[in-house]
């Protein structure tokens, strides 16, 4: 008796998605089910609502009020400055990507929110 290989968690999730959800779904459906997955599986791509806008220098004073994505990417060719009044909502992960990322004194990341910095930046 030969056993079939066991799929990874990510491949099993993808197969389940195709069977149950199909190819037509809204951003809310994606956010709901992605939020229920196991984190850390490299076969799952969470970059479903990421903006690819690039500017030279960016100063962030408040979180974008109309963005309902659970993943936000800010990119700059030179620098990103984050003020102490910039608050990341709970359940949201923010990526600051610029050669220079500067946090103002007093900046805090609330419980339930997360962020990371990258130094690749972008070209205009």
Q: Uncertain spans, ≥5 residues at pLDDT below 50?
A: 44-50
* Number of structurally distinct domains: 2
Secondary structure class reads: alpha/beta
Would you tell me the overall average pLDDT? Answer: 78
Distance between the termini: 58 Å
Helix content: 10-25%
According to DSSP, the number of beta strands is 5
Kindly provide the radius of gyration, computed on alpha-carbon positions and rounded to a whole number of angstroms: 18 Å
Residue fraction in strands: 25-35%
Shape category: elongated
Q: Give a quick account of the main beta sheet: strands, pairing sense, barrel closure.
A: 5 strands, parallel
| SS summary, helix count | 2
Secondary-structure element pattern, one letter each: HHEEEEE
Topology:
Elements (H helix, E strand, L loop, with lengths): L8 H12 L6 H8 L19 E7 L10 E12 L10 E5 L2 E4 L10 E5 L6
Parallel strand pairs: 1-2, 2-3, 2-4, 3-5
3D architecture notes:
Residues 44-50 have low confidence and may be disordered. The chain has two domains: 1-46, no CATH class; 54-118, no CATH class. It is built from two helices and five strands, in the order H-H-E-E-E-E-E. 16% of the residues lie in helices and 27% in strands. It has helices at residues 9-20, 27-34; strands at residues 54-60, 71-82, 93-97, 100-103, 114-118. With 124 residues, it is of the alpha/beta class.
């Amino acid at each position: 008796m030969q056993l079939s290989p066991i799929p990874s968690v990510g491949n099993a999730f993808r197969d389940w998605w195709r069977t149950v959800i199909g190819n037509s779904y809204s951003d809310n459906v994606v956010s709901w089910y992605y939020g229920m997955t196991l984190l850390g599986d490299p076969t799952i791509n969470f970059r479903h609502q990421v903006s690819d806008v690039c500017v030279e220098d960016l100063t962030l004073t408040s979180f974008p009020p109309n963005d309902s994505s659970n993943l936000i990417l800010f990119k700059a060719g030179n620098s990103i400055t984050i003020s102490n009044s910039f608050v990341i909502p709970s359940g949201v992960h923010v990526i600051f990507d610029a050669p220079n990322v500067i946090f103002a004194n007093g900046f805090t990341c609330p419980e339930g929110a997360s962020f990371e910095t990258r130094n690749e930046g972008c070209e205009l």
